[in-house]
Design brief:
This protein has 176 residues and is an alpha+beta fold. It has a single domain, classed as Alpha-Beta Complex (Peptide Deformylase), CATH 3.90.45. 29% of the residues lie in helices and 32% in strands. It has helices at residues 26-41, 126-138, 154-175, and strands spanning 46-48, 58-61, 71-82, 85-91, 94-103, 106-112, 118-124, 148-153. Strand 4 (85-91) and strand 5 form a beta hairpin. The relative contact order is 0.17.
Length: 176
């Protein structure tokens, strides 16, 4: 396994549509393992092949707290979505920035695993968000196109969260 270089906003490959995977090869298996390692090393919850410079319709996602439940989606497509959630979203290809994005609260997608066996995956909340975010990459889109308002640096976001937490604590003390 090897760490791959993550392409960043402005790299032309991120604006291109990825190509369908027709068969699993040893090179693609290696790509998938490298993508998992790169995602974990970067503390991400998802990574799409275009983010490491490969125009293949492959995504890896792991929203587990222990980062030990990787999902591999090959040629994924969302077949059902409903509900709505708005929350902070970031991207390994836009390091140090976050923005508010509205996504479906629940999605169902079909994809193939590493053995090219079709399966269906259902996700809610963070998993639904991650599926939508990573599939956007496969079509040459990035979350910054959907941000409501502006992008915030991680430092600005941390400060905002700390202020909100302090205000909530003060309000709770006043009620007590």
């Amino acid at each position: 396994m090897a760490l791959r270089i993550i392409r960043e906003l402005g790299d032309p490959v991120l604006g291109k549509r990825a190509k369908e995977v027709r068969e699993m090869t040893p090179k693609l298996r290696q790509l998938i393992e490298d993508m998992k390692e790169t995602m974990y090393d970067s503390d991400g919850v998802g990574l799409a092949a275009p983010q490491v410079g490969m125009l293949k319709r492959i995504v890896v996602i792991d929203v587990s707290a222990e980062q030990d439940q990787p999902l591999v989606l090959i040629n994924p497509e969302i077949i059902e979505k409903d509900g709505e959630q708005t929350g902070w979203e970031g991207c390994l290809s836009v390091p140090g920035k976050s923005g508010q994005v509205t996504r479906p609260k629940h999605v169902v997608a079909k994809a193939y695993n590493e053995n090219m066996e079709e399966y269906t995956i259902e996700g809610e909340d963070l998993l639904a968000r991650a599926i939508c975010h990573e599939l956007d990459h496969l079509d040459g889109h990035m979350y910054v196109e959907l941000v409501e308002g502006r992008l915030y640096t991680n430092e600005e976001l941390d400060a905002m969260m700390a202020e909100e937490e302090a205000a909530a604590e003060k309000e709770a003390e006043e009620k007590a």
